[in-house]
Design brief:
The complex is a heterodimer of chains A (710) and B (550).
Chain A (H helix, E strand, L loop, with lengths): L2 H24 L8 H29 L5 E2 L2 E7 L2 E5 L2 E2 L1 H24 L6 H19 L4 H19 L6 H31 L18 H7 L12 H17 L8 H4 L5 H10 L1 H11 L6 H22 L5 H22 L2 H28 L17 H15 L2 E7 L2 E4 L1 H20 L7 H25 L6 H6 L5 H16 L5 H7 L13 H7 L1 H9 L1 H5 L1 H13 L4 H6 L3 H11 L4 H59 L1 H14 L4 H30 L1
Antiparallel strand pairs in A: 1-4, 2-3, 5-6
Chain B lengths: L1 H21 L3 H31 L13 E9 L4 E7 L4 H17 L7 H20 L3 H10 L1 H11 L4 H29 L8 H5 L4 H6 L1 H7 L6 H18 L8 H8 L2 H26 L1 H6 L1 H21 L3 H21 L3 H32 L10 H4 L1 H15 L7 H19 L13 H28 L17 H19 L1 H31 L3
Antiparallel strand pairs in B: 1-2
């Protein structure tokens, strides 16, 4: 296949949902609102996604091994004949992610057809999903930071619209506003980093991958050409660290990293299909994707920042996930924690496995959310785990998908048993394994002693916690005795449109380790801070062997993490909350539980610090504007008016008075003053006259000055 | 032919004004105004085509610094003092002319809902139209001043007669404030008139007249005399400040902005639209046409103050908007914030920034006019604008809300809508300025500093957060929530197709400008911008370097 054809296929796959959105909004909206017409529109959007997937797969297959294809379209002029480019860039990562995004999107569209049954705004929902897919594909096909930022904001908009889809209720209103707003906080950092890099890195093409091959075009190439090595930037190039951290702030907003993470759990107010695609599988991963793209530009200081943010997020979120009772919030915090893994992976330099984890996570988390959505639908929109229990028999397929995905996220593998290089494991095992291996290498680079150890042991421990909280969610939902009989009686298996997508996703998550995604991404791996001197990704991989020896040396520990945690989870939650209710009554545990249950107080902190402070400043500045600035203006007007009176009195009493005599002058003044009380118009005319006189003086004085100095 | 069309743009509305006042019926006045605005739009589209033909003509060495403009009419007006009637156009005026003519059509349509004294309203509006076209076309300083004032007077009456409860106060405030700016303008005009003939080495054109602003800008001797180390350098600085204040009031720049919220709140909806859509742009346009090209060295001398005022306007306006409970006042303050990007982009003296500033004027012209109309549609029905009392309009008026979301999200600066390219380019322009400031001569403020632009740009970028804050908060309070009886408009109250005829063109333009900014704006301005920069930066930088011995 020619480069042009592949590029065109990618553009077609990208623009098809945009066309779908326009057609649904403009044409289908005229067809009337009954459920059948809405369903026609919904199936239409599914067909559009099918087309997108087809194009993506053809491009993926046809891509083979070749250099990245970059097209540049002139968009914004930045100089004499120079343009900031946008346009598609196709490389191996792009085609892989195109298949992933369009596949997941197709399945979620299909799922939504079932999930949104009966919703009067179903058609609008499907249209928003189309717009979202368009924006998301726009991000992964971006050739420059500018292009990426455009769709970065567009996914922000669609996320806003979808979270607030049920805007009649108060909670979604607040959640969607919060999501957009917090993303904008990150975006301010993004703009700063973008602005700094924009003119330092020449054309600003996002091509860190295979930078050597594409030297001058890429940002890294432009930096290297100036003699700036991101791995060793030197004191004069402090701006590079600032730019890297600035751009990563954007990722912190989008990927909901600490401390900008509180919007993601709130975003669960949106319909569940939205949570499954936007807030777990794709959009929140966009931050990770962007960081991976700018990865070669990150200086060691910036990488440490990235790794630390990831570390904090993955620990706190996993702990919070253990005590949440809302099933969607458990999954939301789980998402946060897994995103923390990816970000930590990026910071540690295991670029490949961060992206690999992005892909495996997308499949199993999307499946988990869809299962949760199915459960919620059949349980009268009840989201609380204490109301579930014993749904296994009622919803066997959903339970199957859920348990498969749980095994995948827990990193299930058969310990010790190995067939040559081949180990039997779910996708999540391979990707998490790689991240931990990278973290091990990283901790040995930044110093084994002290806190350096934290970067490797924390993710290991959290791997146990992950398996625990997911088992907890599974057991509480599907096993044990029904805790709310009314809900249990009503429950039933969902229609095929909902069951099929979740099973397909779970199956892909199962086999994700064997279809060579990691190898594909590995081809694109850039230079890293840890592999200074390594030119290609392969060498990076070699450098990570130490990490692998570490991981595989303890294979029982890591391959077996899931077994221990899942047995513990099963034992504790077998009978619902009976055991835990007793545990949380123990004094110290009670307080700790309270702290974690309240999310360490971050939500409240954000509300107080940002919202209240912002509103307070707004009120102060608003009042300042109203009373001080406008007050000064009114004072000037008043002064002008007074001066007019003074001049008037002077005219009347002194000049005219000398003519008319004192008695008449006094009468005149009386009349004059009485007019000031006789309505607005006169007063304003006086005011105007007064100011005109002042103006005239100014003019005359100035002209006089000019003449005088001439 | 083209020259004639240019004159027609000014005189047709002026004659139309008389026609409207003499019209036998109200409906005749309405139709006449609509017809004239449509004719002007057609003329402008024709001029657009003619301008590209003109540019394509290889024989014309087109550039501003040679004093060449397209389709110039130049006749003597007051020979005793050398005042001439000179009009012409270039890439700097063309997009604004198009914006004006498009807005005029939709605003005349929007004015159909005016109830009282329609003949007077339409007549004054046409006079205003003549003034606006005149401002964007005139090349003679005195003529410019006249049109600047001509556009002021109808505005005073349009606010003062057809406005809200505090209309007299708002109208007089608007009038006096702008008049104060005009006084500054007058001083500079006279100052140049008396000083320029004494500049040695003056070209022939300027021996005859010093009122032609293109000659003033293109004459190297004049620039030298008012530039750094020149004979009139102190005047150059003073004149720059005076001109800056004159136009900063119009833009408006904080702290010269307080006339704006009052004028907007009291003005009827169509007048708010034209005020935000076009009249504010006169300030920005005049800065680009007059202040910067005539005093380029002073512009470099003042770059930091101008940029800082821009950043202050962005942040200050956004905070003020957030504090408002009056919907229209919120939109009015958002104008202050958005026009801050114009000043920032202009102040940093980079091509990127300039492009951003220019695009922001066009983009804001569309989005602010649309936002004011969206407010007006609801205000006409609900008879109040208290944000805290609204709710549920999305459900009760879904189609209207679809267009409203385009308008407000364009105001928010969402990519692919018209608010984004301007903001992004202005910000990027600020960062681009790092390159010349680090190597600038030491009389330039912050010369040699690498971090000053990062700080300014970083602060300006936080404006995007605040914008999101007030727009989303407003959107939530007005449009979200369950549908309410009191804001459900059906039958007579339903949104009319005439009202959609105002919203839809603006919404489509917002999308078109956002998706293809180069096609719709920059293809017209590119050549002029390059010519502009030959005057304002490249030459000036060279001269300055030599003068300072570097």
């Amino acid at each position: 296949m020619t480069d042009q054809l592949i590029s065109n296929l990618i553009v077609a796959a990208w623009l098809a949902p945009a066309a779908g959105f326009a057609i649904v909004i403009v044409l289908f909206s005229r067809m009337g609102n009954d459920q059948n017409k809405q369903n026609t529109a919904a199936w239409f959007t599914v067909a559009v996604m099918g087309f997108s997937l087809l194009c993506s797969i053809i491009a993926f297959v046809g891509y083979g091994a070749r250099d990245p294809i970059v097209e540049t379209w002139n968009w914004l002029p930045i100089g004499v004949g120079e343009y900031a480019p946008i346009g598609p860039m196709v490389d191996r990562l792009t085609v892989t992610l195109f298949v992933m995004v369009s596949l997941i999107s197709l399945l979620v569209h299909l799922y939504s057809v079932g999930y949104m049954t009966g919703d009067p705004k179903k058609r609008r929902f499907m249209a928003y999903m189309q717009l979202f897919t368009f924006s998301m594909l726009g991000i992964v096909s971006a050739n420059s930071l500018l292009h990426l930022f455009i769709f970065w904001e567009m996914v922000g908009l669609t996320s806003y619209l979808l979270i607030g889809f049920w805007y009649e209720k108060r909670a979604p209103q607040l959640a969607c506003k919060k999501a957009f707003f917090m993303n904008r906080i990150g975006d301010a950092g993004f703009m700063l980093g973008f602005g700094i890099l924009f003119f330092q890195c020449g054309g600003n093409i996002l091509l860190p991958i295979n930078a050597a091959a594409n030297g001058g075009d890429s940002m890294l190439g432009a930096l290297l050409a100036q003699g700036i090595d991101p791995l060793n930037p030197g004191a004069n190039n402090w701006w590079l660290t600032l730019a890297g951290i600035g751009l990563f702030c954007g990722a912190m907003g989008k990927s909901a990293q600490f401390p900008l993470h509180t919007w993601l759990p709130d975003a669960m107010e949106g319909p569940t299909p939205v949570s499954s695609i936007v807030h777990s599988a794709t959009m929140v991963a966009a931050g990770v994707y962007m960081t991976a793209r700018i990865f070669p530009l990150l200086t060691p200081a910036a990488l440490l920042f990235v790794a630390t943010i990831g570390l904090v997020t993955l620990i706190t979120a996993a702990l919070i996930a253990c005590v949440q009772t809302d099933i969607k919030r458990v999954l939301a915090y789980s998402t946060l924690s897994q995103l923390g893994y990816m970000v930590l992976g990026l910071g540690c330099g295991s670029y490949t496995f961060a992206l690999f984890h992005l892909i495996t996570h997308a499949f199993f988390k999307c499946s988990l959310f869809q299962c949760a959505g199915s459960v919620i639908t059949v349980c009268h929109h009840e989201k609380e785990l204490p109301q579930y229990g014993g749904l296994l028999k009622k919803m066997p397929w959903t339970a199957t998908a859920f348990i498969l995905s749980t095994l995948a996220i827990a990193g299930a593998a058969i310990p010790i048993v190995k067939f040559g290089d081949f180990s039997v494991a779910f996708g999540g095992f391979f990707s998490k394994d790689g991240i931990i291996a990278g973290a091990y290498t990283y901790s040995s680079v930044i110093g084994d002693a002290g806190f350096g150890k934290l970067y490797v042991w924390a993710p290991v421990c959290i791997a146990y916690v992950t398996a625990f909280y997911m088992t907890r969610a599974f057991v509480l939902t599907f096993l044990g005795k029904p805790r709310n009989q009314a809900i249990h009686d009503h429950a039933h298996e969902t229609p095929w449109t909902m069951v099929v997508p979740q099973l397909v996703l779970a199956l892909i998550a199962m086999i994700a380790g064997y279809i060579g995604i990691d190898k594909l991404i590995l081809e694109t791996a850039p230079q890293t801070a840890l592999a200074a001197g390594a030119v290609t990704g392969h060498e990076l991989h070699e450098n990570m062997h130490t990490g692998y020896h570490f991981v595989h040396g303890w294979v029982l520990l890591f391959g077996g993490a899931w077994i221990v945690s899942m047995i513990i989870g099963l034992l504790i939650y077998r009978n619902g909350f009976t055991i835990t209710d007793r545990i949380v009554r123990i004094p110290v545990i009670k307080q700790v539980h309270w702290l974690i249950y309240n999310k360490f107080g971050f939500d409240g902190l954000f509300d107080i610090v940002v919202i209240l402070l912002g509103k307070l400043v707004a009120i102060i500045i608003g009042s300042f504007d109203k009373y001080i600035i406008d007050g000064l203006v009114n004072l000037a007007g008043w002064a002008g008016k007074q001066m007019a009176f003074a001049v008037g009195i002077f005219d009347d009493q002194v000049i005219d008075g000398s003519v008319r005599g004192i008695a008449e002058a006094a009468k005149g003044t009386g009349g004059m003053l009485s007019t000031t009380h006789s309505g607005n118009l006169r007063r304003y005319i006086m005011m105007m006259a007064g100011l005109s006189i002042v103006g005239l003086f100014v003019i005359l004085a100035s002209v006089g000055l000019i003449f005088a100095s001439a | 032919m083209n020259e004639f069309l240019l004159n027609l743009l000014i005189f047709l509305p002026a004659f139309g004004c008389v026609g409207c006042l003499l019209a036998p019926r109200d409906s005749a006045a309405k139709s006449l105004a609509l017809a004239i605005s449509i004719i002007c739009l057609i003329i402008n589209i024709f001029l657009l085509r003619a301008y590209f033909v003109y540019l394509a003509d290889a024989n014309i060495a087109y550039s501003l610094q040679n004093g060449v403009m397209a389709f110039v009419t130049d006749v003597s007006w007051i020979p005793a003092v050398g005042i001439r009637y000179t009009i012409g156009m270039d890439g700097l005026s063309l997009p604004l002319l198009l914006l004006t003519s498009i807005l005029n059509v939709v605003i005349v349509l929007a004015s159909y809902s005016v109830k009282t004294n329609i003949k007077g309203f339409m007549g004054l509006y046409l006079l205003l139209m003549a003034g606006m076209y005149g401002v964007f076309l005139s090349l003679d300083f005195f003529l410019f001043y006249v049109f600047f004032e001509v556009s002021l007077l109808p505005m005073y009456f349009l606010i003062g007669v057809w406005g809200g409860p505090r209309k007299e106060y708002a109208a007089i405030k608007f009038f006096i404030y702008t008049l104060a700016g005009s006084v500054c303008l007058l001083i500079v005009m006279l100052g140049l008139y008396f000083l320029v003939p004494r500049v040695p080495g003056l070209s022939d054109a300027n021996q005859i007249t010093s009122f032609n602003m293109i000659h003033l800008a293109s004459d190297g001797a004049v620039r030298d005399a008012f530039g750094l180390g020149g004979e009139f350098w102190s005047y150059g600085k003073a004149f720059f400040i005076l001109l800056f204040i004159a136009f900063a009031i119009k833009v408006p720049v904080a702290p010269f902005h307080t006339w704006l919220p009052d004028a907007h709140v009291e003005a009827p909806t169509p007048i708010s639209m034209i005020l935000a859509g076009v009249l504010l742009k006169m300030g920005g346009y005049a800065l680009m046409r007059i202040t910067y090209p005539i005093f380029p060295d002073a512009a470099m001398w003042a770059w930091f103050a101008v940029s800082l005022l821009g950043v202050i306007s962005i942040i200050y306006g956004a905070f003020c908007a957030m504090a408002q409970t009056d919907w229209k006042k919120l939109v009015a303050y958002s104008s202050v914030s958005h026009m801050g990007y114009v000043l920032l982009g202009l102040g940093v003296l980079t091509v990127t920034g300039f492009n951003g500033a220019y695009f922001q004027m066009i983009g804001h012209g569309i989005s602010s006019a649309m936002m004011f109309y969206l407010v007006g549609v609801i205000y006409e029905r609900a008879h109040h604008r208290d944000l805290n009392r609204f709710g549920g309009i999305w459900n009760s008026m879904p189609t209207y809300t679809a267009w409203a979301s385009i308008g407000f999200f364009a105001g928010l600066g969402l990519p692919l809508l018209c608010g984004f390219p301007g903001e992004a380019l202005s910000l990027l322009g600020a960062f681009q300025a790092t390159s010349w400031i680090t190597t600038a001569a030491d009389w330039v403020p912050f010369a040699g500093s690498t971090s000053i632009m990062y700080i300014l740009g970083g602060i300006a970028a936080t404006g995007a957060i605040l914008t999101a804050g007030y727009i989303l908060w407003m959107f939530q309070r007005v449009y979200m929530g369950p549908a309410r009886e009191e804001y459900t408009y059906t039958g007579d109250q339903a949104v009319k197709s005439r009202e959609y005829a105002v919203m839809i063109p603006l919404g489509l333009l917002a999308i078109a400008l956002g998706v293809l900014p180069s096609l719709f704006v920059f293809t017209m301005t590119n050549d002029t911008v390059h010519a502009f920069f030959k005057i304002v930066r490249a030459d000036a930088v060279q001269q300055v370097m030599t003068a300072a011995g570097q």
